[in-house]
Amino acid sequence: MARASAKTEPAILVIMGATGDLMRRKVLPALYRLAAQGAMNERNRILGSARRADLDDQGFRALVRQDLADGGAGGEPLDRWCRDSLFFQSIGKGGPEDFVTLGRRIEAIEREQDLPGNRLFYLALPPEAVAGTVGGLGRAGLNRSGGWTRLVIEKPFGRDLASAEALNGVVHQDFEESQIYRIDHYLGKETVQNLLVFRFSNPVFENLWNRDRVESVQITVAEQVGIEGRAGYYAQAGALRDIVQNHLTQLMALIAMEVPGAFDADDIRNEKVKVLRAIPPIGADAVVLGQYARGDVDGLQAPGFLEEPGIAAGSRVETFAALRLEVANWRWQGVPFYLRTGKRLPRRVTQIVITFRCPPVAIFGSAAQVHANALSIMIQPDEGFDLSFEVKAPGMPVNLQTQRLHFRYAEAFAPLADAYETLLVDVLQGDQTLFVRADEVEASWRLYTPILNSPPPVQAYPAGTWGPSTADALLAADGNHWFPL
What we know:
- The structure is a single chain.
- By secondary structure, this protein is α/β, with parallel strands linked by helices.
- The protein has helices at about 20-35, 55-70, 75-85, 95-115, 125-140, 160-175, 190-200, 205, 230-255, 265-275, 410, 420-430, 440-455, 470-475; strands spanning about 10-15, 45-50, 85-90, 120-125, 150-155, 180-185, 215-220, 285-295, 295, 300, 320-325, 335-340, 350-355, 375-380, 385-390, 400-410, 460.
- The longest helix has 26 residues, at about 230-255.
- The radius of gyration is 24 Å and the shape is globular.
- The strands form three sheets. The protein has a nine-stranded mixed sheet, sandwiched between helices. A six-stranded parallel sheet has the order 3-2-1-4-5-6, sandwiched between helices. A two-stranded antiparallel ribbon has the order 9-10.
- Mean pLDDT is about 90; it is low at about 1-5.
- Strand 14 (about 375-380) and strand 15 form a beta hairpin.
- The chain has two domains: about 10-155, NAD(P)-binding Rossmann-like Domain (Rossmann fold, 3-Layer(aba) Sandwich); about 185-475, Dihydrodipicolinate Reductase, domain 2, CATH 3.30.360.
């Protein structure tokens, strides 16, 4: 896992979909911050590409400059970066001749800027455009160059197991797996990366990381917002495809994986795949799906999902999902893993909670209730860790209180790098540790495709609540409850 302070080799970054929302809100600002910090090679150049025929280099630079200025950047450094680093080439209708023209423009910039032929193709495209774009790059010979060539593909990667296998097949026709970077921005967050360090450099925790000491594991990705104008995408995706299959499953695999043989990309990803393959089929009774209805959010009435613009009447797309699964291996057999995500929930939070087993015998009397120790790992918005433990309150009789050991990154270190900054540096350095491999994608879809094919009923829940009550019952059946967030 590279760090944003590391230098990279000079390269041209070709952004397919350069005028799209993701590129303008996330990727280009991250590239500018890296350049401003001196974290990228100063000779790097960015070639934006999109279907717009009305843009040229100057128009693209003006567009990006305005976007970055709206985000607070400005002055001569921004002007100089836009002028020196940004170029644009229309991809037209995306026909074979358009990709040949793109290749000629890349070669021209490499000659003019004295670049060694290292190329990064970043596909910030709708899912339906990925296969055609990859094929176009391959037919134009852009899958090879005088230096290295790398391909970044945003999620979602497929819609189910069959489509993921088909897309892997298309991509592998022209690119080797070592060239492919399937990006999940959650894996670029500092706390997610630190999970491995936290576990494998602190024996006090790793020695407890097993079925003998752990009662349950909960992972929640909660969003307070609704679909935010993304009806076209969300009506085809839903919570299972949008969050569970990738973000939640990635976090679960990092929590459950065995110690890798070495701290490198292949060994780490091998262990994550082993976890996914050890999960038995998830039964329909272990899945709760929900859809938000009109409700109170921060004192205001929020519309229900079916009232959102662009959502068809009677849609059964889920905006909430809760699942119970197990990892059937020596370390985790019998330990329930609970995954939960939803929109229009009470707050925005991503959190992992490891609940440890209570003492086998209560020796302090019935009035002194012992609560389980819990390790809470906050991924966002306030990255850090909390460890709860029991202490005796002053006085008699014996009364136990829960206290917490508290750590926050913002208090201990400078502001954290944005996830896209971290991942972009990793791609430029050729570090695939935080990127998802082909067999990992397919193993994940293999878990959830049966649910997608035969989903349980979608239950309504009021906006501003924590989802359907049956999500609570999912844990109550094991004698557990959701950790307060």
